[in-house]
Amino acid sequence: MADRVPGNENNRWRAELLKPLFALLIAMLASTATHAQGTGQATADQQRMRSTVVDAYLEMRTAPGRGYPVFYVAERGERLVLLKQKTDWVKVRNQRGIEGWVHVDEIARTVDELGDVLAFRSPDLDSFSNRRWEAGIMLGGFGDTDAVSGYGGFHFTRNLSLELELTENFGDFSDGRMATLNIVHQMFPHWRYSPFLTIGGGVRETNPRSTLVSTSDRTDNTASVGAGLRVYLSRRLLLRLQYRNYVVMTNRDDDEEVDEWKIGISAFF
Amino acid sequence: MENWNKCIFLTAALCGAGSGQAFGEPPEQPRQVVHPDIERREIPRIAIDTENFELGPYAGIISIQDFNSEVVYGLRGAWHVTEDFFFEANYGVSEADLTSYEKLSGGVPLFSDDERDYSYYNLSLGWNILPGEIFVFDKYAFKSDFYFIGGAGNTRFLGDNWFTVTLGAGYRLLLNDSVTWRLDIRDHIYDREAFGARETTNNIEWSTGLTFFF
User: pLDDT tens, B118-139?
Assistant: First the structure.
């Protein structure tokens, strides 16, 4: 019986934790339900963003891409409903019900009901230096082994960001997985070739190859310092080169030091 | 000397000019005719539905080197960064049968059943090199993309993880703005040393599936 008491307390604690979660879930379901009730073409269009053409004309294409044919040209004063966006293209419908795709740069030259220019823009070097989120994939070497990783980062300021990186590496004797959290500082965010410094820590799991006998999996903490370079390519894409020096804190007498070189491609938004 | 004279003369002139106002009624503040009553409008982030993510299941056949061709199932997710480039992640599972040697010799199997489980993931970059449009009768037009894709990842097979490079090409047909039909051919290339010596293996996968943009 005595054993059960902590268990019950644990359950109660869990129930306390779950209650607000359930409440949140129900609230979310309720809000989506009410939202679903309100849909219908007319109501949906009212909630959508509208704009008016102020340029001499505006080109509508059949599909979201620069190579697709222009099939309709909207005149100055025509009112458009903005339906959805795919990459740099916005699908619009005019008052006659004609739907087509317009580039964001052209949408950026239309105005809303109050005569203000719509806040659309296609990404450029300026948006690169003011980016908030960044994610990408990288390839390279971790010590003598091949490594592949994916990462995502959030920029608190133009200079500082926090990144979560997941790496898997494959060697002749072992392979491993590593999750690290890194603080990245870029000194010159407005440069096209933007260098950065990084410091971080994480966890690493090493699995020796199945062909090796009498070895077991192990989990160690890691710490790292590094430096790298981001290069703005075009639109939302950037190239990333980085070097890190890892210290893997093993249970053995000596810690392991590993050099890691990586090249990757990332996108920001 | 001349400067001094000028100075005195100018000061006297200024006093004379200013005296009229200085001894009259206090100067009136210019009356504000228009009161600035403009509410500063924050330009909101455009409330528009963006559909840059693609997610969907696929099924196909993978030819596992030294083993059979087997059915493969998977899930793929893509993020379209520009109209030309997209990032894609794939995860697939399959299961290998006996090797030709095991079948012919009729001896003890070389690998356990667990070791025959085949799974992989990869992170790739895709390039829509040939965007196009497909015309059905004279009424319908569907957008399509032919793309090259390449990436790297992991293959878990025969009890170990193998660093895998994936290269391939594919075709995406947009049935409407949100639903697409995809056809993919990928080569999963990795060095394997399960049979003692290290050897490069090519594992060609053919797959088809539906994806949904959201």
Answer: 999 999 999 999 999 999 888 8
- Domain assignments of chain B as residue spans, ordered by start: 53-213
Interstrand relation of B49-50 and A79-86 (parallel, antiparallel or unpaired): parallel
- Per the CB < 8 A criterion, the answer to whether A197 and A161 are in contact is no
Pick A170's closest partner by Cβ from B131, B141, B163: B163
Q: Is the pTM of this model over 0.90?
A: no
Residues with Cβ within 8 Å of A244's Cβ and at least 6 positions away in sequence, in order, are A198, A224, A225, A226, A259, A260, A262
Other Cβ atoms less than 10 A from the Cβ of A266: the count is 23
What is the distance in angstroms between the Cα of A197 and the nearest Cα belonging to chain B? 25
Q: Could you list the mean pLDDT of each consecutive 10-residue stretch along chain A, which spans 269 residues?
A: 42 51 50 44 63 88 92 90 90 92 89 80 84 92 92 93 94 89 93 94 88 75 94 91 92 86 92
Cβ of residue B112 closer than 8 Å to a chain A Cβ: no
How many residues make up chain A in this entry? 269
Confidence of residue B10 (pLDDT cuts 50, 70, 90): low
A–B CB contacts, 8 A cutoff, strictly below:
109
- Which of A51, A127, A168 to mutate to test binding with chain B, by most B CBs within 10 Å of its CB? A168
Closest C-alpha to B186, from B169, B163, B210, B165: B169
**Residue B98 gets which letter from DSSP?**
-
Contact yes or no for B153 and A139 at CB 8 A? no
- How far apart (Å, rounded) are the C-alpha atoms in residues A58 and A110? 9
Nearest C-alpha neighbor of B184 from the set B94, B62, B52, B43: B62
Interchain pair B123, A148: CB under 8 A: yes
Answer whether B212 touches A (CB < 8 Å). no
What distance in Å separates the CA atoms of residue A262 and residue A226, rounded to the nearest whole number? 11
Confidence of residue B20 (pLDDT cuts 50, 70, 90): very low
Contact state of B123 with A175 under an 8 Å Cβ cutoff: no
What's the CATH number for B53-213? 2.40.160.20
Longest dimension (CA), chain B: 127
**Tokens 């600035």 correspond to what residue?**
B36
CA A4 to chain centre: 45
Contacts of A243 (CB under 8 A, 6+ apart): A226, A227, A228, A259, A260, A261, A262
ipTM of the complex: 0.75
Residue B42 pLDDT > 70, yes or no? no
Which helix (H) or strand (E) segment holds residue A107: the answer is: helix A104-107
Radius of gyration of chain B (CA): 37
pLDDT, tens digit, 9 for 90 and up, residues B151-208: 999 999 988 889 999 999 999 999 998 999 999 999 999 998 877 788 999 999 999 9
Asked if B48 and A49 come within 8 Å (Cβ–Cβ), the reply is yes
